[in-house]
Every structure is written in C-alpha cells, then in structure tokens.
Prior knowledge:
Leucine-rich Repeat Variant, 52 helices
Amino acid sequence: MEGILDFGTDLDIGLFDRVVNTMFLGGPEQAQANMILEQFRQHPDAWKRVDAILERSQVLQAKYLALQILENLIKTMWKALPQGERGGIQNFVVAFIVKNSSTDEALEKNRLVLAKLNMVLVQILKHEWPHNWPTFIPEIVNSSKTNLALCENTMNILKLLSEEIFDFSEEQMTSKKTQNLKNTMLGECAEIFQLCHVVLEKAQKPSLIIATLETLLRFLSWMNLGYIFDTNLINILQSRFLGVPAFRNVTLKCFTEIAGLQLGAEYQEKFVLMYNHVIATIPSVLPPETNIAKAWETSSDAEQQFIQNLSLFLTTFLGRHLKSLEFAAGQHGPTKEYLLLGHRYLLRISEVEDREVFKICLEYWTTLIAGLFDELQAMPHSVDMPLLNLGAVSGINRTSFAPNLPLRKNIYAEMLSRLRVIMIEQMVKPEEVIVVENDEGEVVRETLKESDTIVLYKSMREVLVYLTHLDVEDMERIMSEKLAKQASPSYSSIDGSEWSWTNLNKLCWSIGSISGAMSEDVEKKFLVTVIKELLGLTEMKRGKDNKAIVASNIMYIVGQYPRFLKAHWKFLKTVVNKLFEFMHELHEGVQEMACDTFIKIAQKCKRHFVIQQQHEVVPYIEEILATMDQITSDLPPPQMHTFYEAVGYMISAQPSKPQQERLINKFMESANAAWDAKMSQARVKPEILHEPDTVKLLSHIIKTNVAACTSIGGPFYVQIGRNFMDLLGLYTAASGIIAELVVTQGLIATKTPKARSLRTIKKEILRLMETYIGLSEEKDLQIVMQNIIPPLLEAVLGDYARSVEPAKDAFVLTVMASIINKLGDLMDDKIPAVLGAVFECTVNMISKNFEDNPEHRIGFFTLMHAITQSCFKAVVQMPAPQFRVFYDSVIWGIKHTIPDISELGLSIISTMVTQFGAVDPALANQFYQTYFVSLLQDILFVLVNPFHKFGFRLQCMILRDMFNAIETDRIKVPIFDPTQIPTPVATNKAFLQDYATDLLLKSFAHLQRVQVQTFVAGLFVTSRDFEVFLPHVRDFLVTLKEFAGADNSDLYSEEREAEAALKKKMEMEKALSIPGMIKPSERQVFLCRRIARRRTYLWL
C-alpha cells in the first residue's frame, strides 16, 4: 500500500484503486489504508497525480478523492502556483468536463464525478474570471446551443457559480472581490437568460428542463427584473410546467423566489396577476376540498414536497404582497376568490401533522394576524368603541361593532374562527408542563425539554393572543365548547372522540397561553368556569393517570393567571390548598409540577400571603408555616427545596424587619432543629460524619438553606449568622475526612461515594455563602467584609491549597470570582491571599495539557477576569515577577483551543488594556513599554489562526485599542528597544507599521509587501471607529490561504449579534404594549429592565 506514497515514480493506478477500495469497503487493513491515503492527500505534490487518477482509475471514490485534492489546492494555493501550471490545470479541467458530458450516455455515467468537477471549475473561476478569462460565459453558452448534454451540464455549472457568488461569497471572499463578481455576473446575464429561455420554451428532455429550472431558481433573486416581468417567462412556467408532476415542485419554488422579491408599487399589478395565474392552476393539481392532513399520511415524498412548496409559495406571496392582493380583490371579483382560496389552502395545510410544514404556515399566520391587530389599534378614537379601553381592559374585544366597520379582519372572519380551532388542536406543550404522555401511552414525568417545542409554543402563544384580541367572544366560545365536550359524559358517550389526554392537554395549554388577553371581567367569568369544569373532571375520571393529567392541567392554568389570583383571595387560597393536596400525590411528576406552580404563584402574589386578608384571622403565611411539616411530609428533597424557595418569596414581601426575622426563624425551625441535633452529636462523636445517612441529611439541610436564601436574600443574615461557624467547622471537618481517606486509600479515594458526598457538603456550603453574599444589599457589604469574609477565606483558601489535586474543588474558584465581583474594591487587600492560595497550584493542574481539569480551567480564568475587572488596583500593585506570571497565564489562556477559555483570556486582556487607560499614566507607560510588542505578537497569532476564529470580535477589540493608543499618541514612551532595531525609527507609529508588516510577512510569505503595508496602515486609520476597523480586518483574513474555503461564519458574528439584539428589542417593546403577549411570569422582569434602562438614561 505504501507504494502510492512514492512520488519519485509514476503512480500505480491499480494499487491506488485497491487502497481506496480497502478504505471504503472495510476489512482488517482499513485503518492502514485510511492513514496512507491521508498521507497521500497531505503530500504537496499529490495534486500532480490527479490527471492520471481521473483518466485511468476504475473506482469512483478514487476519482472523488483526487478531485478533493485538486479543489483544496485551488482554494488554498492557487495564487502561489506558476502561471503555466495554473493554465494547465484550467485547461485539463475544462477538457475533462467536456469529454464526460458531451453525450447523454457519458453525462449519466459520470454524473457524480461531474458534480465535483463542476465545483472545481467554479473554484478556478473565482480566481480567474473575469480578468484572466473574460470569455468564459460566451464560450460556455455557445457550446451549449449545439449539444443538449453539454447544455445540461452547463446549467449545473451556472447554478453552482451563482450560488458561490450570491449565496456563499460573504464568508469566502473579500467584499470588493464579491461585488466585482456580482457585477460581472449581472453583465453576462442576458446571454445566460436567453439560453434558459430557449430551453424552457422548446426543450422536451426532462433532465435538461429540470436542470434549467433549478439554474433559473438560483438566478431569479438577482437577475434583471425585465427578464421576469417583461417576457413570457411567468406564462411559460405556469402553462408548461406547473401542472406537470415531474416539474411542478421546482416550478413552484421559482414562483416562490419571485414572490419573495421586494419591489416598488409599479410591479404590484404584475405580482397580483402572477398570483392569480398560479392559484388558478393549483385546483387541477390539488382540489380545494381535499383533506390535506389525511392525504399527507399516504402521499409520496414528491407529493409531500409539493404541499410544503405550496405552503412556502402562499406564505411568501401573501406575506409580502397581501395589501396589493386585498386592494385588487376590492376592484376585481375573481381576485377576491383567489385570495380566500389561498387562505383556505393554508388552513388545510396547517392541519397537517408535520412540524416543519406547520411552522411555515405559522409564520404567515403571525404576520397576518399582527397586521389585523395593528389595524384595530390604529382606529381613530372618534369611532364608537364601547369595549375598547386598552388602559384598563386587556383585549380589544370589538366584536359587537367591528362587523359594521370597513376592517380587513372582516374579510377573514370565518377563516379566523377556523384558525382558532386549528391553533388549539395543534397546540404544543409549554415549558412549565412536566407531566406528559410518552410514546407508549403512559403518563410520566418529562425528563428532557425540547428547545424546538419551547420556541414553537412561544410562536403559537403569540398567534392565540392576537386571535383573542381580534374576537374574544369567539375564542371564549370555542374553548368553552371544547372543554364542555371533555367534561360532559353525553359528549364522550356519543362518539368517544372528544375525551382524550391529548385533546385536554392541548385545550388547557391554549387556555393558559392567552392569560392577560381578556378583560378582567371576562377573564374572571371564563377562568372560574374552566377551573370548575376541570375540578369536576378530576372527580369524574377514574384512574391515577387520568387524574394526573387533569391535575397537571389545573396547575398549569392557575399558574398562568396571577392577575386573577391577586384579585380573588379566596380563589387563590383554594388553589394553593389544592396544590398542597397535589404535593401528596405520588404519581410521577405531579408533586414536582405542584411545587413549580406554587413557586410561580408565590413569586407573583407574594404580598397577599403576608398581609391579613378580609375574614382571615392571621396572614396566610402563618398558617403555612404552622402546617409546613405536614404539607411537605411526602415531598422528596428536590421538591422540598422548591417549596422552601417559594415560601421564601412570601417572607421577602414582609416590610417589617422584626416581623420578617420572626418569620424566618419560624420558617427555618424544623431545619435548624435537625441541624442542631446533628451538630451536637458531631461535637461529642465526630465519627458520625462518616455515616452516609448523616452526610445525606446535612447536605439536604444546607440545600434547604440555599433555597430559602435564594428568595429571601439579604435579610437571611439572621439565619446565616446563626449557623455560620458551624458551617465553616463542617467544611473543615469534611476536608479532614477526605484527607484521611487519601492517606489510607490513595488518590482513588477522592472518587469514592463517601468522598463525593462530603465534597457535595463542601460545595453546598460554598453555594450558600455565594448566594447570600451575591444577594446582600449595598448597605450590608461592610458587615459581610467584617464578619463573613475573613473566616470564610481562611477556611476555604487554606483547604484548597492543602488538598491533593483530585480533591481541589473548581467551585472554589468560581465562588471566589463571584464574591470579588460583588464586593469589588473592598476585596483589594484580600487578593494577594486569594492568589497565594489558588494561583500556582491551579496553574500546575491545568498547564500540563489542553484537556485535563476543564472545570478548573474555566474557574481559574473566571477568577482572573473578576480580579482584573473588580480589583485592578490589586493587579497593578503586584510585584513585577508576580505580574509577569499573572500576565503569562492569561496569554496562555487566549491560545487555548476551547472557545470558552480562550474568550475568557481575551476578555481579561481587553479589560486590562481598558483599565490601564484609566490609571496613572506612568503605570500605563510602564506596562506598554514592557508588554506591547509581545501582546501584539500573541493577538496576531490567534487572529490569523483558523482555529481561533470564534474569538474574532474580542481579538479585534484588543488590536483596535492597541493601534488607537499609538495613533492618538497616548503612549509616551518607546514600545521598542532602539538598540534592537536595524533601521532607526523616530516614532512608535513608524515602528509599529514596520514591525507588524514584517511579522505578517514572515507567517504569510505568499502575500505582497505592499498588500500587507496597506492593511497595517488601515489598522491605524480605522482604529477610531470599531465598526470600520472590524470589516477591514475581516477582509484581510479572508484573503489568507488558511481561511480560504473554510467556514468563516465566526468572522461575521458581530453583525449577526447586533442585528438579532435590535430585532429582539423591537419585538419586546411591541409585545409589552399588547396585553397578554408577555407571559405573566416574564412581564415583571422585562418591565423592571426597561425601568432600569430609563433611569440609567436619565442619570446620564
């Protein structure tokens, strides 16, 4: 096999074929064959064997491998090849394509090889066309006019060329080169279109027609509009191909592409005409009365694809041109019928049990209904609208008068009613529901949340909220009727089709999703009816599974209506008592959902539990605390912790500090009793800490404290102070036991169940401290510094330093980082102690390679970032040798191949550069004089490294700050050693220009000096504006051979993230203005954020 690696002789093609077959067909020598072929692929002269392999090999995979080698050469080394070799490769590729596509037989036989050959040719074109090969388009078009087989392959080449230039160019070529190719393609479009037009008008060969339609499909988005609307192209597509099964899918895609064009008003009449022609043809293919959902189940792949393509055409056209179509419908009767027919098709398609098809339809329904809602909101106040009161009433509820007004929604009234039913029947599970039916029909607890389902639920919820606003009475009627059919024995006994877990779930999920969209009065009446029906259903239905499903739906719905609960105390109390009942239900998932619903109610209605309600003897929190042991008696530990967090939210609402402390003491009474008992035993008999049951109980008690502290926050100090020294003593004792185990059993002891459970105790103690300190109020931070921090650091840092490596807990590093971020410069004088305990020993753990101890790596750099960000004074006060080690560790981090670690390192450097700009100039100058050049080397190293593209934005931020500091002359000392510079330079800028140029040329010898000099000069010029600096750097990177042909999407993350953030902000602002659009559990969070932003703005 090794004979193919001998590049001193001609390649033995037979041997090469056998090696390739061995790799692809398997066998004992497969691994060896794979290794040898990889060595062959990597050899710098491998491309010189491609012609022989293509001409003489009998194995398809061998030819494909050869073309991969050639394609990689063209992508990465083309400009470095001599002109003669480039011309030879170009001529060979063209000749080989012509040879293998000149007849129908050759075309069919070599179709797979030709597909790769065509791509190789396109890669050549991206380098050579148009400047070195200006006649390519005329040549390929003319050769196609006399040979149908060649014409078919020409279409494939043109399709690939269009995709490379217009679809994939952004991440593979500079913006200037991309624009040049686009302009050239537009200039050659006439000849290409003429060829396509002739084929579509006259050709009879199916494969040629399909290839031409697919090529046209790629051209439609950018070609001159005259070719589309001023020729008979649309008529040809509709009359010749739309009704033919073999062509209708790609034809419909072409119409969809045209429909997606955003053009001026002068084209709207032509768009309407096109829509009418297309929709008039569809009934002959798919009759309007067809039950599409049922037909889908027995359809072929091509037929299902047609239904999906039809949904794409309708949603695209109606989404872009609905107003024009509605206007034309008012002037022209048939157009109105076609408008409604298109929507009827979409309603039918929306019933299909296919998530991807449904999502296509859902996107349009959202657009349509949002537009109808906006029209209602924009109605003038002079119109008599007795039900319209957006200030006090949630829901527009204009049903009583809307039919008499010229509103667009009246055109679709019947359709919208059907859409409400479809949305309810297609509703997916909300995130809060965890009691589900599995594939075997069993009612179980959900173990894995599907992110796709959560996203889809949010979109469907949005549509249901809009549909409720458009006609609240119809929505209430539909939901009430469906619920009655679930609950009424008469319905279920008639046909048995209404009662089912699925139907009840979807209905209740829909009811919960429209919370806030009705007026309070309507909501009250509706919700009371719903809960009564469901409670009745609980009594009516027999069997644990049935009761669990009904219970989960009751809990979901009540959790979605906090406004109603706040306004109706008796109902709120009844609901909470019902949740307490469900907490004793042992069916899988019911207890967890009861606790989740309880915490949601506690968060939203917390104040109502700590005030004395009318007709009540005491605030309800007192009753809860008095019976808490009974309520929680059947709860497993995770649900117990949820319960404690929920009650903590209630206690946090108590405004009186003495009363709050009394409640906290009573709240933690049971936990403290168990804690005190174990602590007393441990003082007398320390060996009880070796007992698994004791360790498990202590861990549970500490987690309970964490849960309570999470919701109570700073006032929890009364509890923290009570047990603080015991907690630290337990932490130390647990560490001592682990150390004893290591002495007696070796390092493997750290992996034993006993050691792991003791480490859990230590981690939970740290989590409790982190939670309390993180939630402490500003006025309490000095108390924290005096009473908590010194003993905490002494216990935790000393233990970390003494522990063997496997016993060092990475959580210590992240907790220290959290504390430093919270306390800020109050921790300045503690930083030497922190670093002294964790720095060297952690570096020893993570510097051996790039893989071991990943949690320690993240924790270490998180801590370094916190120190740099919050205690920079401590950083600049480090002795020079210690700072050098600190700095070098961060530089090592930015070169890490794990994105999270590398980006943390970059963030630290970015923060450091920013912080040095705000300190004493003498300190800043000292830093730059020592580290500027080496930092430049390191940043450029990761910047041009393809494996570090994920950090592109941060790399550019640092580089921009460095060049800007030189450009604006903020650095007053030389950043270079004059004795080491062969050619004297007068300024830092002159040195940096030459040094950066030489540095890049050493790494990329194929670049021209003038090219690199221009790039470096641009770094200075653009450093004042990051939005200009970033694309300047990106364009340069795309030209480097190491980036050519690779996935460069990370280089464009800045624009995508900014665009996504702006879009999200606009959507959120609109959603906040629509009652019910934001879930009650999320609305307060968004409002608080908006208020905080406004306060910041006013302060500025």
